[in-house]
Amino acid sequence: MPVKYNAIIIRFGSEIGTKSPRVKVRYEKSICDYIRRLLEHHSVSFEKLEYTYGRAYLFTNETSEASELLTRVFGISSFSPAISTTSDIDQIADVCVSLAKEEFIPNATFAVRCRRVGTHPYTSLDVNRIVGERILSSLKDLNLKVDLENPMYTMGIEIREDKAFIFLETIEGPGGFPIGSQGRVVCLISGGIDSPVAAWLMMRRGCIPVFLHFDLGDFGDKRTRDKVTRLVRKLSEWMFNTPLRVYIVPHGENLQEIKDKCMDNLTCVLCKRVMYRVAERIAEMEGAVAIVTGEAIGEQASQTLHNLAVIEEATKGVPVIRPLVTFEKVETERLARRIGTYEISAEEEKGCAAAPKRPSTRARMGVVLKEEQKLDIERMVEIALERAEKFEIKYGNGDN
Amino acid sequence: MPVKYNAIIIRFGSEIGTKSPRVKVRYEKSICDYIRRLLEHHSVSFEKLEYTYGRAYLFTNETSEASELLTRVFGISSFSPAISTTSDIDQIADVCVSLAKEEFIPNATFAVRCRRVGTHPYTSLDVNRIVGERILSSLKDLNLKVDLENPMYTMGIEIREDKAFIFLETIEGPGGFPIGSQGRVVCLISGGIDSPVAAWLMMRRGCIPVFLHFDLGDFGDKRTRDKVTRLVRKLSEWMFNTPLRVYIVPHGENLQEIKDKCMDNLTCVLCKRVMYRVAERIAEMEGAVAIVTGEAIGEQASQTLHNLAVIEEATKGVPVIRPLVTFEKVETERLARRIGTYEISAEEEKGCAAAPKRPSTRARMGVVLKEEQKLDIERMVEIALERAEKFEIKYGNGDN
């Protein structure tokens, strides 16, 4: 009997499991709806998607195409391409033997792990024993051995009422919460590695991002704008059919004014404080509950913990969330690769030409406030907002 | 020739490498000082610790004892127990052959990777070739094969002037910055999994924690206080000889007052707002630049992003840093295990008895402020601070 994968077992994030049953079911069903729409959009045909508390079973012959998509669905903790059959123990054993014959290498060790819901003439332990013995006796020439501690292969069997699912592989999902289960947030985005990762981490926890990019004008790189658009497009692949709003705010003239009028070593702090103020205004306009940045402690000279506090003082009502605040650079890069933003972020571009050689690592609040009196900050913010360009990127029907 | 490990190659965090040369050398030397003191404290004898830009070489016969300690030194990205010898190519090849003989299994694949600083009669590629050939010809019975793409073993060779170091293994360090290179922070600590991990992440980035625990009195568990002390003691193992200050603040009466006077579904938000205020005062007293919490978006019903913003409004001057804000619970648990706090945190304890059955997930700022007018918050904070107990835990000379 040749083996044909025809189903996928989908497991929901363990944290969704800590919610009240009512919220849990609502979350999990909304994830199922999302999966259905995503599969349809990509023309992956499936017979049905069966939801049951804590799990869903997708019946499809296109398991590899579907798997590719499921790795990008928030709320899924893991999934397993499987062979579905009836709950008849002989049928189950037949499928397991065929699968083992196809996949196991000679001299391999294996274990059988059954999980069962419903009434059956056997227990889970019976299934483990019977299937294990059948594999050993049917595939003698492979010289297999059972190893319950540290097996090379684990033959997984999930029996649910009159159906059974057999699988060898468990693929990690992104985890997190369903899209939009938390509020909107304004995500600052540059062309770099960090900010898209920070935005993605918020998206994973259920937040809808509104992107805000500051165009540095003559101090920046002409290519950055296009990079940002492609980064948002890449991130949109994780939020099917959700329009992602992008604001591009001109910041070159404001930066020039800061350079012209203020102490050179405070440029970064003063620049960021203007950015935060603009972000706060956009948060109010968009009904967003937080500002999100890719800042990490000590990553750049101006990003001391002390300076982060001085910068944050510029926002009064909206909290600043920094998902990467204690990340190591290598951790951020690893995540960027997984998300798919790394390659775009890594494209060459000029750094900010306004950054001073020796930025202050310990800006004093009093001095900062005094320097700001040389600027008409209200007007800077107003003009930035007036000239802001706004567009939406949507991954889904009608677009990509 | 029997193989005897007698050195450890220590590599510093890659992010330290992005600093100016002056800062980099200062950071790396301070890590070396720390390592010396740590080894001495644990009576691990060593001949010397040789510092050179980006690397350090520890000469010791107790490589496994030293390795154990190095896994807990911030600023180290990785290290390799090694065999030191001269830069003579025949000596190097001899050591490599002996090491391969001892470690390689039959039919294994391997690669030789040489890194060289100084003037030598050979290039790095010469060394790779010569050593590879010598291993193959000397250990014919093992049937080894060179595989540069995906070898089972990598024979590392670092040649530095007249010395060479040969190693097979690279052990990951914690990364991060040297202790105290960033400012002090007030870390809220409960008995749970999250808060010690959040504190550790800040410690890794160079911050010195001041711990603050709220004793919930009749609403809490008598065992929690002892748990907290042991958690801080465990964390202190990462900060040799640095006294870690702990504040235990009575919070039971304040919580009772909130329960008695205010809307039940706002209990958690109001309670946290008092905690944040106390934390801010302690931050001022301690010269700390931030308040650190273990909060994650959506982890508990009261921890919606919306509520975090409402809670944060209570602090005016000191920013709140939440290293775990977008962590999945499984990620936090994995880290807790690595740090060594998991087992203590996982000990059974009663949850807070004051938590309402249906906490508000969307507390309204106006309502919260109105409820707070029923409380004498200034007095609550004052009394909490007056009755606070303060002590220090130090891992190092004279103590543990």
β-strand number of chain A? 15
Biggest interface: chains and residue counts?
A: A-B, 45 and 45 residues
CATH architecture of the largest domain in chain A: 3-Layer(aba) Sandwich
Query: How far apart are the termini of chain A?
Result: 41 Å
Structural class computed from helices and strand pairing of chain A: alpha/beta
Biggest sheet record of chain A:
9 strands, mixed
- Oligomerization state of this entry? homodimer
Kindly report the CATH topology of the largest domain in chain A: Rossmann fold
Strand content of chain A: 15-25%
Overall geometry of chain A: elongated
**Average pLDDT number of chain A:** 94
Q: State the helicity of chain A in percent bands.
A: 25-40%
CATH superfamily of the largest domain in chain A: HUPs
Return residue spans of chain A where pLDDT drops below 50 for at least 5 consecutive residues: none
CATH class of the largest domain in chain A: Alpha Beta
Report on the architecture of this protein.
The structure is a homodimer of 400-residue chains. Helices cover 39% and strands 21% of the residues of chain A. With 400 residues, chain A is of the alpha/beta class. In chain A, the strands form 2 sheets. In chain A, strands 1, 2, 3, 4, 5, 6, 7, 8 and 9 form a 9-stranded mixed beta sheet that branches. In chain A, helix 3 crosses helix 4 and helix 8 (267-286) packs across helix 13. The interface between A and B is large, with 45 and 45 residues.
